[in-house]
Amino acid sequence: MPITPTEKIWMDGELVDWADATVHVLTHTMHYGSGVFEGIRAYPTPDGVAVFRLADHIRRLFDSARILMIDVPFTEEQIVGATRDVVRANGLDDGCYLRPLVYLGYGEMGLNPLPCPVNVSIAAWPWGTYLGDEGVANGVSVKISSWRRHDANAVPTAAKSTGMYLNSSLAKVEALKGGYDEAILLAQDGRVSECTGENIFVVRDGRLLTPPNSDSGSLDGITQDSVETIARDLGIEVSHQQLIRTDLYLADEAFLTGTAAEVVPIRAVDDRPVGGGKPGPITQEIQRTYFAAVRGEIDRYKDWLDHVD
After folding, report:
1. Active-site residue, selected from the candidate residues 160, 172, 177, 278
2. Whole-model pTM?
3. Is 160 a catalytic residue?
């Protein structure tokens, strides 16, 4: 989706003009992919714009950096505050998407990243539904990718690392060129891992199932965790369970979750309709509750909201 430029981007402690938020061509992360990032959304609420689960996202950003042995030159509290500053400085009262990035900068080259300077940036811009309004309303078609998800002992899949998303891009392009909206990647053992940038859920016999993150190579999703909490509060049993592709074909319902995508029904997998080929009742109830929660309409979830003002 195209980006609509805003006024300011936070870079290493300063708000700079959008057009001036540039890096050198020899920036280390550009060559070797050794950076970490987050995707975060802010939403309008009755009490003003609020960032959804901001502290949790920043904690995961720092966890990712720790896994890659990157020492972030700011505290978590400073990055939380800087994120609020970016939303405020750009007047994004109707909500936005936020992209904090920790990257290795200019000054060193070669495979040893340890001497590299560490830089941090936070950008924000208005961004609509990642998989489209039609997908949110009526579901998306997905295919099982020919590309496998990383082995967690080859690269650390618990980290949201920049370079590892080449794997997702290959799967995404393959899916789009094949006429699908999204792809599902299998783990090295052939079991279901996740989509290119989203976790996956299936509904079977009224229960909600999702692959275990550490075993499947999928990222421990914050939206995934939010949906699990919502489901349990709605009286729906939730289990982390190994899944194979036929579990997707035979599911009563299926949907994917992620910060950018939010909660999106899956209507077909590999040209096989899921359930009735349209969003099912459990998916719709979770989706409605999630969208109400992020907009501050449900009191029990208001502690997930970090208000900018």
Report:
1. 160
2. 0.96
3. yes
